[in-house]
Fold each of these.
Amino acid sequence: TLEERVTDLYPHFNPNEVRRFVKALSDQGDATEAMERLARENAEMYDIINAWKYDHLVTWGTHSADFLTTGGQYLAEQLLECFDRRSYVFGKHPFLPQAGFALDLSIDVPFYDLERWWATFPGREKFVKKINVLNVDNAHLNSESSRLLDDFHHVRQLSARNCGLTRLPEAIGKMHGIDYLRLDDNKIVLM
């Protein structure tokens, strides 16, 4: 059944979330076809992320340690969580298909260089358009240009609290569809 396929793809969904997900798919048209597409896309994303991780982890030594300790591994884990629909951003769990995906890249580790690792992630062009909610709280972002934010011009909600920003990055100005923006605890000076 469609419910079983949803449960197989998103085993962490509770029964109510499964029912609501199936109903939302059905309301959008051919639910079976949509579910097949989601399963294909999810498998493709897993393949891309795992190949990227393998490329960095298979070489033991400095290269591997760098990926593990400066944010590459963390980015890979958060991307998997995003496309598994396990992320909670803004206190919400966007599990319905029309909600898109939420990517939580908020960090507590000051030396993670998410901008650097994001630039090397090979699947970003294909999958970034599916992400509607982005949280980069505590990630150090460059006020002049942010490779990370540049790719997310279509997000609806962005939280970039405590990111060391001194002015509003141009990338945020290009987010024309943004409904909700959180920039607390930065040192932004408006001119």
Amino acid sequence: LGGVAYVKLREALGAVAIALGFFQTLHAAEFDYIVHPDSVTITGHRGDGAEIVIPDEIEGLPVVRIVGLRQYDYPIHAIRLGRHVSELDSPPFTHVYSLSNIWVDPLNPTFHSRDGVLFRRKGETLVKFPRRKSAARYEIPDGVTAVEESGFLHCWSVESVSMPSSLVKLGPSAFHGCGLMTNIAIVEGLA
């Protein structure tokens, strides 16, 4: 779906779910969120800071999901994920255009970051290379086995990517929109 269509669909689905009593969208100082019986889903950010810090908890419940986070009238340069975040949009942070770093609480069992790049711990999967990260050359670390869907989506500054021999899978559109990409060192046997 396109950006406007996605937002309208999300708002419509949210209105239906609220009308049926499934959940209620609430607003904190910085975030729009949904409270579930055992967790919280962040559905939007309304602050104006260049760095978003996803809290560990809201209303005493763990923040476990982030969906629909997008950049509106101000640049978001960095996102810090709390220790309980275990679910993200697929692909994550697609509409955060100025993103240059993603950091993760070291106690998070699902995700971690290396030099501002987001990885999934299980299977050592590269989840998201921030689109505005300034790195003309990037070497995917040894031990990484996969790059998720749109992992390098619209990474304009990346010209060259080296892949380790451990890499066995590239998700769909892994390098879509990388306009300056001139060199990808692909390993043998990659799916």
Amino acid sequence: NTKKLLSSIEEALNKGDEEAAKEICRNTPGPVASIFYQGLTRLSDGPEMVEKTVASYGSVQMGLLEKGLTWVSLCIGLAPSLGFLGTVIGMIQAFDDIAIAGEMSPTVVAGGIKVALLTTVGGLIVAMILQVFYNYLLSKIDDLTTDMEDASISLVDMVVKYKEKKQFKSSVIPIHLRKQYICEYIFVQNG
């Protein structure tokens, strides 16, 4: 759940606990948490470096998501070819049957033609089923990729706010020291 992950990281960063934010990512399975972890490891380098790291590691995660699809795609391409190979084998069988019988009749060639048609249908059915499965997987990967991109933008925005808040806190002078600085400033100015 990306929203829950973002909420947990934001809560940790609001407390100023960078290590807790990283730990949340380490303990959360999935590509989004992996991308966030890589980005948070570069938190000290600034929001620009976090953004570059998130983008780079996002590409790595996309590659991992798509790596098994090449085999499905290969099977989609091979199934009709194997069906057509069966067609050729069936026709060869039909012509062998004609040669053995010495005559041409429908019953002599029917067995070979049946093999040819069955293998063609089988190859086409396998290819169509795999194509539907492949498109389903692609749509799921696209949805996950969109989710990763949206979440990454939210993380970078969160890091920018965290860095601004952290910088503001470090530039604020505590009240008890302000009086001392003002007095010293006035003393130096008046000589």
